[in-house]
Every structure is written in structure tokens, then in C-alpha cells.
Amino acid sequence: MMNPVPTSRLRIMTAALTACALLLSFSQTANAYQSIPPWPNFDIGPSKGQVVGVVVGIAAVGAAIGVGVYYAVRHNHSLTGCVVSGANGIELSNEGDHKTYGLVGDMAAIKAGDRVRVSGKKQKKGSGDAWPFLVEKVSKDFGPCPVSAGTH
User: Which has fewest Cβ within 10 Å: 76, 113, 130, 134?
Assistant: First the structure.
């Protein structure tokens, strides 16, 4: 009969074979990794074109917001129309909103019967029929008002 191998010796041999197998597989894996460069040449992050596009987009949105705020805050404080002499003084019949405004302020260059563009500020409506308008300057004098066909 054969001598049986003691259990302790069998365990040592199994451990040695397992260690050799692990070392062999580790060395093959290490050789495989040596053929790959340590830092692959990947482009990480956005390209220059994408960065420029984002900057241009942000600038365009900023400009659009700025223009929008400018036009929202800026009020067109000018009226254009024919000047008439009314019950409470000189009045202007605005061509834009078809309202009649009572003119106050700098009216030295304004004559009844002329078509003018005046710059100034609309005032809160008072007791009369006409909305008050504080004239700061006469922007343009177009001359006499045109005669409509129905006023002969």
C-alpha cells in the first residue's frame, strides 16, 4: 500500500500551487497592462468651439435682456398731432392714441393750427376732458395741420 500524504503536507502543497497560479496570472495581467499607455489621450471637457458657443450664447442672452429692460423702462414720451385752442388752453389731438392732451410747460413755439411733435411727460388726469402733458421741448414743427375733406 501506499503511504498516505499527511493532511498538513497536502495543505502546504495546495497553498503553494495556488500561490504559483495567482503569481502566474498576475504576471500575465501585468504584461497585458504594459502595452497600454498609462494615460490615454482622451479629450476631457468641452472643445474650444463649444466654449466659444456657450460664451456667445450667454452674451446674446445678456444683450437681449439689456435691450428688453431698456425698452420696458424707456417710455416714449412724445406726442404728435394738431394743436387746437381748447376751453382750458392749448390742446393737442394725439395721432397715436387718439386722445386729447392739454399742453402745459414750454409752449413758446407752439401755435394753434400747427402739427407738431412735442417731448415731455404725461401727467395724471385732472378734472378736465384733456389729459395733461408737460411739454419739455418741441421736437418738430410740421407746419399747418392738413385740412380734412369733411371740414369745408
Answer: 76
